[in-house]
Amino acid sequence: MNLSQKNIIVTGANKGIGAATVDKLYKAGANVICCTRKPNDELIDKADKLNKKNENKIFNYFFDFSSEEQVLREANKITKDFEKIDCLVNNAGTNHVSLFLMDKIEEIKKVFQINFFSQLLFSQIIIKKMMKNKSGSIIFLTSKAAIDSISGRLAYASSKSCLIDTTKILSKELGRFNIRVNGIAPGLIDTDMLNDQLSKDEIENLKKKIPLNKIGLTENVADLILFMCSENSSYINGQIINIDGGQH
Question: CA–CA distance from 17 to each of 99, 134, 143, 185 (Å)?
Fold first, then answer.
C-alpha cells in the first residue's frame, strides 16, 4: 500500500502498537506525526537519521494526554504546521487494573482523562482541519476488554467502551464530510503492558483459549491500521474491528 504524500498522526507513538504503526506507515511513504508524552533521545535520533535519507518525514511532538492544556496547545500547533491531515490514529492510552471497591474515583477519572476526554479534545481540533479538506480517516484504538467486561478492569474497559460509541456516532456525523471513523479492538497482543500485567503462566493459559493458539504481535495490529489509513478501506466506516485471533 502506498501512502505517499499522506500526513498521518499517531498518538502514543513511542512503543508497542504505536511504534509498530509508525514504522509501517513510514515504510509505506507517509509523513508520520508522532505524539508522545515526553522527549526521548531514541525517537529524536531515529527521526533525524530517517529524515536525512528519505523524502517522507517523521515529526515529533511531545505532550501529556493527562493535561488538557498541553493537548490543546499541541493539537493547535499541529494544525498550523500542516496544511492537510489525512489520518488520525488515536492510540495513546493508559492501563489500570483494580477491583472497583478497592479503587479511588480520582484514579478512575485520571484513566478517563487520558483514554477518553483528552482524545475527544485532540480529535475535535484535528477533525476541523479534515473538514476543510473534505477527507480523512480516524481510527480509535479501543480494546477487547471493553467488549468482554473483565473483572478488575472497570476504569480501563469503561473508558475504552466510550470510544466504541464515539466511533459509531462520529462515523454518522462526519460521513458527509468524507471523513471515515472506525475502531480497532485488539485482544491479547505481545506488548510491555501485557507482560507487565500477567505472568508467563497466565499468558500461556489465556493463549489456549485463542483458536489460533498464539498471542498477537504489535505488527499485526499495525498492518490493520495501515489498511484503515489507505484508500483500500475507503468504504469501511463506523466499524469496530476485533483483532484477537478468534478469542471469545
Answer: 26, 28, 12, 12
